[in-house]
Amino acid sequence: MRQKVFAGHAVRRLREKFELKQTELATRLQVSPSYINQIESNQRPLTAPVLIAISRAFGVDITTFGADDLERIVADLRETAADPLFRDLDLGVQDMKAVANLSPAFAHAFLRMHVALRRTAEWRASDMPAAPGERTDEAKLIPYEEVRDYFHYIDNYVDELDLAAEGLADRLGVLAGTDPGTAFSGHLSRTYKVSVEVSSDPAAPLSAFDMKARRLVLSAALPPQGRAFRLAATIAQLEHRGLVDRLLKSAGFRSQTAGEIGRLALFNYVAGALILPYRRFLALARARRHDLDRLVLETGASLEQVCHRLSTLQRPGARGVPFYFAKVDRAGNIVKRHSATRFQFARHGNACPVWNVHQAFEAGGQTLVQMAEMPDGGRYLALARGIVAPSLAHGQPPRAYALGLGCEVSFADEMVYADGLDLKAAPVARLGVSCRICPRRDCDLRAFPPLDRDIRTDPAVRGVIPFEIV
């Protein structure tokens, strides 16, 4: 095992789910009650024999007892603790690890509360009055963050939906010689009597589905990959509404808006899994050593669809390379982000200016390769590439984005982009999460001082950065 697994909270929840006492659980696992008590209090780690015994006794996936989620919680707590509000409390990493280990639910509650606090401050600072009838509570301010965190803590992989999508894709011959758009439109017509039309009206939405009339209208402005995605998303609505409802109920989103965004995200997840079915795409990605251009060419999917799908290949027993994936606009806003790695995205504010996604806008479609190191010492092979969505009509600007995809350098052998790159001698870009919480004192691209450090200015001395971090 990669590291010791302290998962007392998971064992406790499992025991409570089956309404067992510690002595009864100990009997089932053939260990002593005192050992169960020590595991649940995180005084002792879970050993491989105990994990196997849990899997056999309760039929659960032992990979769910891993420490990756706890690492993410600790990383998020560290960012939150940098807020000046907590400066006098001297919250250390060990404190955060203790909270994440003993009560991850409390840690999530704390993170959620801090987001609401920040949004309240931003709303009040904007000095904008609420519209008539508009709610002024914070539930409406953070639905996207809530859905984002939901996918973040499940490794951006939804097993039930992925397996169902793969089964249908296999039956339709996707990635086996059949054009996805043709296969999906044929399935909609045969199975659900849905007619598909293409509209050239520039004022029409990109996609509009009338459930009662069984009519799907797609904009002519959509490229073939976009049309295939909308067809697949419509199939998801028709075939998996019940399963998505159950997933949403278990997710426990706090607002109706978050639930609606979550529903849309889960339908889109199915669409991505239909276009790039798991096993076939994983085999192709490995065979092509994750060459993005080859994967786009051979699957017919868009670059964004390929990158996004690579970040979801985390099926237990058949995991792909753990990737992070991000989509960034010209203002530096991260509009989409997923990660199966320890790579940490800023929960608040913009991304680190040293990250190569910012240079991708001017790279002319070239894939940029960067050796990057995060403050925790983790090193990544970071790829970045610019994409442009054409304007829909005269006078409308094209929409430009940069896509970021990366994995830990330990997986470099599986990446064509590492060929010819000396991993020991290559220059390393020292990234931070964001300027507000970055501990690096010698970065010439720093935009703001760190929240948790004092600064000093000298009117007689002016460096590249107009302050010194104490």
Automatic annotation (TrEMBL):
<feature type="domain" description="HTH cro/C1-type">
    <location>
        <begin position="11"/>
        <end position="65"/>
    </location>
</feature>
<dbReference type="Pfam" id="PF09856">
    <property type="entry name" value="ScfRs"/>
</dbReference>
<dbReference type="InterPro" id="IPR010359">
    <property type="entry name" value="IrrE_HExxH"/>
</dbReference>
<dbReference type="GO" id="GO:0005829">
    <property type="term" value="C:cytosol"/>
</dbReference>
<comment type="similarity">
    <text>Belongs to the short-chain fatty acyl-CoA assimilation regulator (ScfR) family.</text>
</comment>
<dbReference type="Pfam" id="PF06114">
    <property type="entry name" value="Peptidase_M78"/>
</dbReference>
<dbReference type="GO" id="GO:0003700">
    <property type="term" value="F:DNA-binding transcription factor activity"/>
</dbReference>
<dbReference type="GO" id="GO:0003677">
    <property type="term" value="F:DNA binding"/>
</dbReference>
<dbReference type="InterPro" id="IPR018653">
    <property type="entry name" value="ScfR_C"/>
</dbReference>
<dbReference type="InterPro" id="IPR050807">
    <property type="entry name" value="TransReg_Diox_bact_type"/>
</dbReference>
<dbReference type="InterPro" id="IPR026281">
    <property type="entry name" value="HTH_RamB"/>
</dbReference>
<protein>
    <submittedName>
        <fullName>Transcriptional regulator</fullName>
    </submittedName>
</protein>
<keyword id="KW-0805">Transcription regulation</keyword>
<dbReference type="Pfam" id="PF01381">
    <property type="entry name" value="HTH_3"/>
</dbReference>
<dbReference type="InterPro" id="IPR001387">
    <property type="entry name" value="Cro/C1-type_HTH"/>
</dbReference>
<keyword id="KW-0238">DNA-binding</keyword>
<keyword id="KW-0804">Transcription</keyword>
<dbReference type="InterPro" id="IPR010982">
    <property type="entry name" value="Lambda_DNA-bd_dom_sf"/>
</dbReference>
